């Protein structure tokens, strides 16, 4: 039999964590000063007229490096708990982790061959 009172802490956490952002947005909307004018619609509010176009294009290589870093950073997060309990998990977990690392290495080789790792 499932006892629902065991989930009281979960529901309290869920309600509180939902109310905090809602209250924060509400309070910022109520307390924020409202100033409308031509300065508000300019690119910069420093009072100096902007020179040139505000639109700058970034190279896609920067985002590719960031994405590859995130993928391998997440890999480390997944492999750390596995390595701490390697002796308990056995051979099947080793094979699963080996397949996981192999797929990531295939992705790295693919990115390398496509030239995503070259900066220039």
Automatic annotation (TrEMBL):
GO terms for molecular function: NADH dehydrogenase (ubiquinone) activity; oxidoreductase activity, acting on NAD(P)H, quinone or similar compound as acceptor; quinone binding. One of its GO terms (biological process) is photosynthesis, light reaction. It is a multi-pass membrane protein. It holds the Pfam family Oxidored_q4. One of its GO terms (cellular component) is NADH dehydrogenase complex. Its main location: mitochondrion. Keywords: Chloroplast, Membrane, NAD, NADP, Plastid, Plastoquinone, Quinone, Thylakoid, Translocase, Transmembrane, Transmembrane helix, Transport. It comes from the Eukaryota. It catalyses: a ubiquinone + NADH + 5 H(+)(in) = a ubiquinol + NAD(+) + 4 H(+)(out); a plastoquinone + NADPH + (n+1) H(+)(in) = a plastoquinol + NADP(+) + n H(+)(out); a plastoquinone + NADH + (n+1) H(+)(in) = a plastoquinol + NAD(+) + n H(+)(out). The chain crosses the membrane at residues 12-34, 62-82, 88-112. The keyword Cell division does not apply. The keyword NADP applies. It is found in: Mitochondrion membrane; Plastid, Chloroplast thylakoid membrane. Its EC number is 7.1.1.-. Belongs to the complex I subunit 3 family. NDH is composed of at least 16 different subunits, 5 of which are encoded in the nucleus. Core subunit of the mitochondrial membrane respiratory chain NADH dehydrogenase (Complex I) that is believed to belong to the minimal assembly required for catalysis. Complex I functions in the transfer of electrons from NADH to the respiratory chain. The immediate electron acceptor for the enzyme is believed to be ubiquinone. NDH shuttles electrons from NAD(P)H:plastoquinone, via FMN and iron-sulfur (Fe-S) centers, to quinones in the photosynthetic chain and possibly in a chloroplast respiratory chain. The immediate electron acceptor for the enzyme in this species is believed to be plastoquinone. Couples the redox reaction to proton translocation, and thus conserves the redox energy in a proton gradient. This is NAD(P)H-quinone oxidoreductase subunit 3, chloroplastic. It comes from Hanabusaya asiatica. The lineage of its organism: Eukaryota, Viridiplantae, Streptophyta, Embryophyta, Tracheophyta.
């Amino acid at each position: 039999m499932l006892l629902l009172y065991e989930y009281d802490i979960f529901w309290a956490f869920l309600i509180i964590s939902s109310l905090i952002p809602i209250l924060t947005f509400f309070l910022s909307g109520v307390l924020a000063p409202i100033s409308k004018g031509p300065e508000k619609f300019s690119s910069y509010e420093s009072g100096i007229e902007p020179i040139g176009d505000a639109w700058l294009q970034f190279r896609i290589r920067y985002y590719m490096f960031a994405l590859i870093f995130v993928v391998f950073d997440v890999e480390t997060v997944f492999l750390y708990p596995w390595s701490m309990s390697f002796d308990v998990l056995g051979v099947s977990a080793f094979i699963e982790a080996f397949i996981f690392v192999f797929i990531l290495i295939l992705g790295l080789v693919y990115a390398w061959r496509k030239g995503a790792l070259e900066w220039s």
